[in-house]
Design goal:
Blueprint (H helix, E strand, L loop, with lengths): L1 E5 L2 E5 L7 H9 L17 E4 L2 E4 L12 E3 L12 H23 L3 H13 L1
Parallel strand pairs: 1-5
Antiparallel strand pairs: 1-2, 3-4, 3-5
Helix pairs in contact: 2-3
Bound molecules: FE2/S2 (inorganic) cluster (FES).
FE2/S2 (inorganic) cluster binds next to loops.
Amino acid sequence: MIALTINGKSYDVDVESDTPLLWVLRDTIGLSGTKYGCGIALCGACTVHIDGVATRSCQVPVGTVGSKNVTTIEALAENGKLHPVQKAWLDLGCAAMRLLSERNDHGGRFAAQAETQADRRRH
Ligand code: FES
C-alpha cells in the first residue's frame, strides 16, 4: 500500500511502486483531469505539481512521491466554478471530439476543417 496526498486529500493505493503516477491518478483514484499524451515526457499533458513543482506525471514512479503534495487540475476550481485552465482543457477536448465526429461523417474534409479551426485559435 502506498500513501499519497492528492489535492490535500489522503489516499492509500494498492499498486506497484513503479507504476507511473499518471496511471494511479487516472485509473486508481479516478482523477481523469490529468491527461495522457505522449507518455515520454514531451507533451506536458500529464503535468501535475508535486510540492509546487510542475512535473510530468507519466515519468514519475508512484513509489517516489512519498509524503509530497500532488496537485492536479481538479484542485483549480473555486466555489464550483471552473478555473480558466480547466475551461481551456474542456474547450480543446470538445473541439477534438467535434473534429473526430466530422472526420467520421465526411472523411476527406477533416484536414481542411482542422486547419481552419487551428487558424481561428491562433488569431
Ligand atoms: S504524457 Fe506527454 S509528457 Fe507525460
